[in-house]
Amino acid sequence: MDSCVTVAMAAREYELALLHVNYGQRTQARELRAFEDIAAHYGVPEERRLVISIEHLARIGGSSLTDTHLEIRNAEKESHGIPNTYVPFRNANMLSIAVSWAEVIGAEALFVGAVEEDSSGYPDCRESFYEAYQLVIETGTKYEKPLRIHTPLIQLTKDEIVRRGLALGAPLHLSWSCYRSEERACGLCESCVLRLRGFRRAGAQDSIPYEQYPDDALLL
């Protein structure tokens, strides 16, 4: 959902080139379908869509998103520490690919749908991480005018993201957030609950299918 809204924001100013990364996650096929659907919605031609596999992250392991021996836990009202859905240094791997492609096609900006609200669990969703990576780009690329990372959602809450998406006409119904399922979203994992809470607080209805819904206490 965050990436979908970020695409809608980028589309206002730039010609789009969209990157999707498979990393061996459980919902890999469903997320790829969402990518293709969103790209088609915005009329992005095939030559400006790039799908990359970095399934070495699944071989490295350490995350319940890629290791089926680890349980994806249900969301809790209060989170404690980094959840086991964290994929070690995933976003740095993705950014390195994006920067390489950006150099080749001469991109002016790199948009990332990172959200600080997720940073209690994921250290590579923090604004400070992207500020540090900006220095990596400026140090290690050929750009005379460095490629700029844009994280337009970084300080927004999930309900603010939903509102922004609706205002921009972003195809939220084409996006997918569930960590567990590819047919119907489970409704209970942390990602589903964050998404549903955002829609609830925004006073909007999420149109993707859910297997079940969490207790109201988790959505307040």
Describe the structure.
The protein is mainly α. It has one domain: Rossmann fold, CATH 3.40.50. Helix content is 39%, strand content 7%. A two-stranded parallel ribbon has the order 1-2. A two-stranded parallel ribbon has the order 3-4. Helix 2 links the parallel strand 1 and strand 2. Helix 1 packs across helix 6 and helix 6 packs across helix 7. The longest helix is centred in the middle third of the chain and has 16 residues. The radius of gyration is 17 Å and the shape is globular. It starts with a helix and ends with a helix.
What is shown here, in short?
The protein has 220 residues and is mainly alpha-helical.
* Spans where pLDDT lies below 50 across 5 or more residues: none
Percent of residues in helices comes to 25-40%
What is the residue-averaged pLDDT? 95
Under CATH, the topology is which?
Rossmann fold
Mind sketching the topology for me?
Layout: H1 2-10, E1 18-22, H2 28-41, E2 49-53, H3 56-60, H4 90-105, E3 109-111, H5 127-140, E4 148-150, H6 158-168, H7 190-202, H8 216-219
Parallel strand pairs: 1-2, 3-4
Helix pairs in contact: 1-6, 6-7
Label this structure with key terms:
single chain, 220 residues, mainly alpha, two-stranded parallel ribbon
